[in-house]
Amino acid sequence: AAEATPRRLSPRAAASPTQGDARWGDTSSYGAKKKHRVFCQLLNGDWALCTVLTTSGDESVLKVSEGKVLRLKTESLQPANPEILDGVDDLMQLSYLSEPSVLYNLQYRYSQDMIYTKAGPVLVAVNPFKKVSLYGNEYIDAYRNKSMDSPHVYAIADAALREMKRDEVNQSIIISGESGAGKTETAKIAMQYLASLGGGSGIEYEILQTNPILEAFGNAKTLRNDNSSRFSRVVQCAVGERSYHIFYQLCAGAPASLRERLNLKKVDEYKYLKQSCCYSIAGVDDAQMFRTVTEAMNIVHISKEDQENVFAMVSAVLWLGDVSFTVIDNENHVEIVVDEASKTVAELLGCSIEDLNLALSKRHMKVNNENIVQKLTLAQATDTRDALAKSVYASLFEWLVEQINKSLSVGKRRTGRSISILDIYGFESFDKNSFEQFCINYANERLQQHFNRHLFKLEQEEYVEDGIDWAKVEFEDNQDCLNLFEKKPLGLLSLLDEESTFPNATDLTFANKLKQHLNLNSCFRGERGKSFTVRHYAGEVAYDTSGFLEKNRDLLHMDSIRLLAKCEISLPNMFASKMLAQSDNSMSVPYRSSAADSQKLSVAMKFKGQLFQLMQRLESTTPHFIRCIKPNNLQLPAIYEQGLVLQQLKCCGVLEVVRISRSGYPTRMTHQKFARRYGFLLLEDVASQDPLSVSVAILHQFNILPEMYQVGYTKLFFRTGQIGKLEDTRNRT
Ligand code: ATP
Ligand code: MG
Fold it and tell me: Is 361 an active-site residue?
């Protein structure tokens, strides 16, 4: 019940910043005076708010809390903001923008369940790990009719909607953050707001119903997050984690007849699920979730027949893990064992046991234009089997998304404008970083550039172009790091692909190749053995190349695709035609696999292609950014670890954006638009005058202070909070 009524914690006028104190950690004008509030750093690295009792020489005596007094060097203290600024809803309002001030402000709000805070144009969301009463129809209405204006996902969704209508431009809401920070929940909250427009029925309702389906097939329990959006974990799963929810839901919730038709076992009887020794999630009823998912499938018009086919594929994937092999000669060549597992897989896919055996135990290749058949060893056959399971599952997911999209767009009125919500994994840096982190961090590097460009670069260019007085603000450009990844032929991605095509290459030869070609790059550092370090915008990450080549090579062979193409069941058949089409498209890409009989895209190249498509889509939208923060690693409420929060604030550039936004003019409007929008509020008749004169007259009539705006050649530029006054008057009129 933190925010039952709108609250402004501080009057804007009092919080209005002056340029001078906007710098980081600037204590030059500051001397610790008596009774002053300051931040001091405790031994564990946390900052504590305390009051200065006395200062003598270069030391101060501080009261940290009741009964706790410390003596510290005065110069080690950081100034704290006046009490009136405690918990301001936009970090831009802080007079001192030091790290401790920002951390304290977020913590102050967090402790009162105010989990949302603005950082200039960015919304920061700190995960509460508990139900907070900030959502639902009352809140939605309040944000819609503007009786509430504290920072909120609803406010962001509302702004996107209004700007889409006003500017006739597509919008995007870009949500980022670490695993478990709350991206997916935030995306759902934004969808909830947009869906409420439809009054709780119709297409908006159907769109909301896609969530349980997408989460069942796309999410899994990890050590960091019980409901983590994941990819590729069908065949491998760490202890304590789970594979995709749908596997457990199906096994727990399928009615008896379906259970029989799909030959389902108990979850702990499948090899793929057994390896992690984790089958349930506290507080989650998988059987109940299965009913929710099928109900949602009904709502988005996936037919009963298709649903059954989907579950047959899910069962086939599980049974594939149990398919085993027998060694048939002294070279370790194998054949599949004809048992319940292989029979069930064949039946579910709609192929013969012979075809399944052929696909999993032999490989057809073309060498010097001659067709040869290679027998597979046990290890190769196992890999082939796992690759098939992964690709069937991936195709299934893709198919589901396609069906949902189709069903939602059939016969529905389309306005031609859209709001895209992007829920994307944030930057990752662990003790050990592998190919997955390499891809994720590369994607984040691109997104960061989009963010930078949008917020900083475009902004400054616009000032300069429009001839206003603007002392340039430097910002970190990450183009060098992107070049390190993307440059051809000597970039990380190109070199990885090249090495992946050499049959004798190893992770070590790959690492050496990187060192040989990239050591002069300022964003790259070769390390001992198989490691290298990349200087990302968010910090340095050391990658271990173990497994890079294997993960980058797409293991799915033509034999497996041919198997699926032969299947009598429509789904696998469809998957196969798509895969064939995809491998055709890749002909233009210089990825040669000497062992494979077709040219296939490497995983990294596919990833890059998808990333570019995504970026292209985003470029044509007006972005709105939400940065999710995870306050602790325990998934528990009311624990706020400063170090963890600070590191995330740095990673997503929140601190930098506040500094820059505050010293700039974030609101702008062309003279014409401004005159048109507010001209009618003028007391004198100005119909005959040019837009610039009308604009100036408006500024005067409303007493907008000269330091709060600048007049450019074509546009007016305002500091934050200025247009609000005009809009209020306009809306009242
Ligand atoms: P991943 O990258 O692993 O997919 P994520 O950033 O999408 O992680 P979420 O699944 O959205 O993380 O959130 C993790 C958990 O945090 C949720 O299951 C929920 O328990 C809690 N949570 C997140 N946001 C909120 C919120 N606004 N209110 C209550 N709980 C929340
Ligand atoms: Mg998620």
Answer: no
